[in-house]
């Protein structure tokens, strides 16, 4: 959906602060209803997408845990399972606070998520890389969505 010029300017401002402009911009545009959104609307999109991604990734990790027999991979996946559980709970709480218009509380709920998510990122990217890049793309998307949610939340005044 095409955004109006004010919304486009907000999306550009937010996404230029994020590690991957294209993914950020595409996510906002794909989820934009009606072509117009203030920072509250953009925050809702980013927070919903972060919660949805954390939920889906947690399911993916649990599926991998059920099917793997490699003890080292299992241990690494448990780190990721714990990390994504924290991220999912935090964004669930953030959405609850968002619905109450408690934007400061929402931002506080989101603040621990980068560190939690990073623990999964680090375990799969620290040499020696023992595993295939099974979590690379999911970690990248989650990292960007977390940044989008926190950055957009920070712009609500």
TrEMBL record:
Domain of life: Eukaryota
SUPFAM superfamilies: Plant invertase/pectin methylesterase inhibitor
Stretches assigned to the Pectinesterase inhibitor domain: 6-150
Keywords of this entry: Disulfide bond, Signal
GO molecular function per UniProt: pectinesterase inhibitor activity
InterPro entries per UniProt: Invertase/methylesterase_inhib, PCW_Enzyme_Inhibitor, Pectinesterase_inhib_dom, PMEI_plant
Keyword presence, Nucleus: no
Coiled coil region boundaries: none
NCBIfam families: PME_inhib
Recorded family membership: Belongs to the PMEI family.
UniProt-recorded name of the protein: Invertase inhibitor
């Amino acid at each position: 959906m095409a955004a109006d010029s004010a919304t486009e300017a907000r999306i550009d401002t937010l996404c230029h602060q994020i590690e991957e402009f294209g993914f950020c911009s595409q996510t906002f545009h794909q989820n934009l209803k009606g072509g117009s959104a203030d920072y509250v609307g953009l925050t809702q999109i980013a927070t919903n997408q972060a919660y949805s991604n954390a939920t889906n990734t947690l399911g993916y990790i649990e599926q991998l845990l059920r099917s793997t027999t490699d003890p080292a991979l299992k241990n690494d996946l448990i780190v990721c399972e714990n990390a994504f559980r924290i991220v999912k709970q935090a964004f669930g709480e953030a959405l609850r606070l968002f619905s109450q218009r408690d934007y400061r509380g929402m931002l506080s709920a989101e603040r621990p998520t980068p560190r939690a998510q990073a623990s999964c990122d680090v375990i799969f990217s620290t040499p020696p890389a023992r595993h295939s890049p099974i979590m690379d793309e999911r970690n990248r998307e989650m990292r960007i969505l977390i940044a989008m949610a926190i950055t957009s939340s920070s712009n609500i005044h």
